[in-house]
Amino acid sequence: MTERTSLQGKVALITGAAGAIGRATAILMAERGAAIVAVDRAGSDMAGLAAALPAASRFHAVTADVRQDAEVGAYAAAAVAAFGRIDIFVNNAGVEGVVAPVEAYPVDAFRQVIDINVIGVFLGLKHVLPVMYGQGSGVVVNMSSIAGLKGTPGLSAYTASKHAVIGITRSVAAEAGPRGVRVVSVNPGPIESRMMDSINAGQSTDRAAAHAAVAAMVPQQRYGRVEEVAELVAFLSSDAAAYCHGGIYSVDGGMCAV
């Protein structure tokens, strides 16, 4: 870590913070000096996350449903109440949905994916950006996926939602740049996580075979680690990335290169 990549003194608000990527990001950002405001749904392992942070970390947990306007407004207000500002917003909460061909995809399941992955991202921006505009500074990292860049059979809802996140990122970047706020998107490929395990299970009854088939499509011939995604998020959130704005950054072992 250099002085430019340090997050010392910054406040990072992370949604989906108890999940695989959110947790790894919170830990790394805390190690680099950021205060962490962790947001996740009721029943999430916030205590486990708190225990995994460095002992001297500044940490505040908020329970919220990212689909609900009032609850999103409340988590933004809670961050300001706890630490006075929001320097980094990792707009990360998301779900994969079920795996099914589009003609068999349950309408309610499709709507749930859109509500969490798209409406949740939109509401986060709606409530956090005014805080950053008031400061004249801030960084937003919207978590998309390589599913936002290409199609995947059986994942129409997830793919549609992650394409939408990239569109929102580009639109909001054009709005926010002149006001001192950077907005980017991070797009993980296959990552060792509960989410990928769930997708593999939906694609085949032989999870090991499904896992191996996906790894074979990656030029690096492996799944990524959540820590590798967190490293990119932390870099983009730092002063070292001051001219990175509006970009769509993949961390996928080269999967989108072929």
Please summarize what this structure is.
The chain is of the alpha/beta class and about 260 residues long. It is built from eight helices and seven strands; from the N terminus they run E-H-E-H-E-H-E-H-E-H-E-H-H-H-E. It has a seven-stranded parallel β-sheet, sandwiched between helices.
Give the low-confidence spans.
none
Strand order, sheet with most strands: 3-2-1-4-5-6-7
SSE string: EHEHEHEHEHEHHHE
Helix content: 40-55%
Strand tally is 7
Tally of discrete structural domains: 1
Name the average pLDDT. 96
| Tally of helical segments | 8
Which percent band covers the strand fraction?
5-15%
Organism: Phreatobacter oligotrophus
Family: Belongs to the short-chain dehydrogenases/reductases (SDR) family.
Domain Ketoreductase: 10-194
Keywords: NAD, Oxidoreductase
What features would you describe in this structure?
- The chain is built from 8 helices and 7 strands; from the N terminus they run E-H-E-H-E-H-E-H-E-H-E-H-H-H-E.
- It has 258 residues and is of the alpha/beta class.
- It has a single domain, classed as Rossmann fold, CATH 3.40.50.720.
- Strands 3-2-1-4-5-6-7 form a 7-stranded parallel β-sheet, with helices on both faces.
- The longest helix is centred in the middle third of the chain and has 29 residues, at 107-135.
- It starts with 10 loop residues before the first strand and ends in a 7-residue tail after the last strand.
